[in-house]
């Protein structure tokens, strides 16, 4: 689960040499503490083992997946920690790194500048704009596209479903069944449940499946590999959902691969698996040119069912939720696609969106940041306002209630009054925002302390976290935890 701040141009800045970069963490990472207990308040993560010659250990935070955290060191290494061997696929994906943060062994010496994690797959971008990915094998490009059969099930589909041993993070905690539409795989959410005993059983199943694999074709995990993109394509940032991936090029074109059964790849149909990177048709492809000196124009790509054209010439920001996606154009327009059961596409309905579709109620508002969780989406505007829509079972929208919102709703809570949001991030069922003046707010699900407020009480409105002695610079949520990049004051 992930999102971006105010566009790709927003980088974490180190304004003065000599200031120490710190990473704070709170929430639940099974391998972060020997007693395997949640971390209810922010703690500093330190690892002198990879401090570089400048003395700065950290460069950025990337959130992480289910049961592990990710960050980038000042020297460009991808750092992971927090996993345990009974998490099965997640343990393998995170590099089997437990309590101590360690560099992930990538097959390149290039510096990592961006990274993202889904349920149990990861993707990283090097300073040469190449992309590496690894983890859950179905999320890794293999060069073929698998579509749904027109009638009946296939052996291939049955095999796929037998490997689909997700934890309850993919299951509605209130046993809300999912709609069946267009032949999509809906078994994940119709299982119901959500109790810890169920989670342990499924984690155990994942572990057994991984350990029992004997050949490369059968294994659930893929080693890090270079993603094959068209010649000249240079990726600047990436986003990872439950089982799908989006990548954004330097000319503002979106590429996607992985599972697309609810339309989260934006290709106009329910494609079960896209196993090679495909361009996602957000706006007119002719707009993707490095020389964009002309004034902003209207793209000629009309999204499905829309009677107007999408504002913008390229995409600037991307985000992936559990099974939906969101992008922002350079004109500040938001497009969403994918699973819509909880209104997470912001279209005023609970329909799936198979193609990128403008969130029309936000047109006229310059949106600069977007993040997505399992069932919700949160945006920030150029004015620093926060808009949220989708599932709200734990207060993750921050509206003060638990009612789902199918249209974007402005958060007018007094807690954010006169503050400008700068960075937004979403975990599975919680949200976090960093304001222009360095204040940190979290809200939503708090069973594992992922709000950092010292308790396990859910919050339905943004609640401020006080961290003394540092200047917050960036925030990133994992599934059950939150990471904060900060700078020492002197």
From TrEMBL:
Pfam families linked: RCC1_2 (PF13540), WD40_RLD (PF25390)
In the UniProt record, does the keyword Transferase occur?
no
> Spans of biased composition, class Polar residues?
165-189
Q: Does the keyword Repeat apply?
A: yes
UniProt lists compositionally biased (Low complexity) regions at: 205-215
Q: Tell me where in this chain the RCC1-like domain is found.
A: 221-483
Q: Where is this region: Disordered?
A: 165-217
Per UniProt, which keywords does this protein have? Answer: Repeat
Q: Which domain of life is it from?
A: Eukaryota
Residue ranges of RCC repeats: 76-128, 252-331, 332-383, 384-437, 438-488
Query: Would you tell me the protein name for this molecule?
Result: Regulator of chromosome condensation repeat-containing protein isoform 1
Source organism of this protein record: Tripterygium wilfordii (Thunder God vine)
């Amino acid at each position: 689960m992930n999102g971006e701040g105010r566009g790709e141009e927003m980088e974490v800045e180190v304004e003065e040499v000599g200031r120490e970069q710190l990473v704070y963490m709170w929430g639940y990472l099974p391998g972060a503490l020997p007693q395997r207990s949640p971390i209810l308040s922010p703690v500093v993560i330190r690892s002198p083992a990879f401090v570089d010659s400048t003395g700065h250990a950290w460069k950025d935070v990337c959130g992480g997946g289910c049961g592990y955290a990710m960050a980038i060191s000042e020297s460009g290494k991808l750092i992971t920690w927090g996993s345990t061997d009974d998490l099965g696929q997640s343990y393998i994906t995170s590099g089997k790194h437990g309590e101590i943060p360690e560099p992930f062994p990538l097959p390149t010496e290039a510096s990592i500048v961006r990274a993202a994690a889904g349920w149990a797959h990861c993707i990283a971008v090097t300073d040469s704009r190449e992309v590496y990915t690894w983890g859950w094998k179905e999320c890794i490009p293999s060069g073929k596209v698998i579509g749904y059969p027109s009638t009946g099930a296939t052996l291939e589909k049955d095999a796929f479903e037998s490997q689909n041993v997700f934890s309850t993070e993919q299951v509605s905690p209130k046993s809300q069944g999912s709609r069946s539409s267009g032949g999509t795989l809906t078994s994940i959410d119709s299982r119901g449940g959500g109790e810890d005993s169920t989670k342990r059983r499924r984690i155990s199943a994942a572990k057994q499946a991984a350990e029992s694999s004997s050949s490369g074709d059968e294994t659930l995990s893929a080693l890090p590999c270079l993603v094959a993109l068209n010649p000249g394509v240079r990726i600047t940032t990436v986003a990872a959902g439950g089982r799908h991936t989006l990548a954004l090029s330097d000319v503002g074109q979106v590429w996607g691969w992985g599972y697309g059964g609810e339309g989260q790849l934006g290709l106009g149909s329910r494609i079960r698996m896209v196993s090679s990177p495909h361009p996602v048709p957000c706006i007119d492809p002719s707009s993707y040119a490095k020389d964009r000196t002309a004034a902003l124009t209207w793209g000629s790509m009309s999204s499905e069912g829309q009677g107007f054209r999408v504002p913008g010439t390229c995409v600037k920001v991307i985000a992936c939720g559990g099974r939906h996606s969101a992008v922002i154009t350079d004109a500040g327009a938001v497009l969403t696609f994918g699973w819509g059961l909880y209104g997470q596409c912001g279209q005023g309905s609970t329909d799936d969106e198979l193609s990128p579709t403008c969130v029309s109620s936000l047109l006229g508002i310059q949106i600069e940041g977007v993040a997505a969780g399992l069932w919700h989406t949160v945006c920030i505007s150029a004015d620093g306002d926060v808009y949220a829509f989708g599932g709200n079972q734990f207060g993750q929208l921050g509206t003060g209630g638990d009612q789902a919102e199918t249209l974007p709703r402005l958060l007018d809570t007094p807690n954010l009054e006169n503050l400008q949001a700068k960075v937004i991030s979403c975990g599975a069922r919680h949200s976090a925002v960093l304001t222009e003046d360095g204040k940190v707010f979290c809200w939503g699900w708090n069973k594992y302390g992922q709000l950092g407020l010292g308790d396990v009480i859910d919050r339905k409105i943004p609640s401020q976290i006080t961290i003394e002695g540092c200047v917050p610079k960036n925030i990133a949520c994992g599934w059950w935890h939150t990471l904060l990049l900060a700078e020492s004051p002197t």
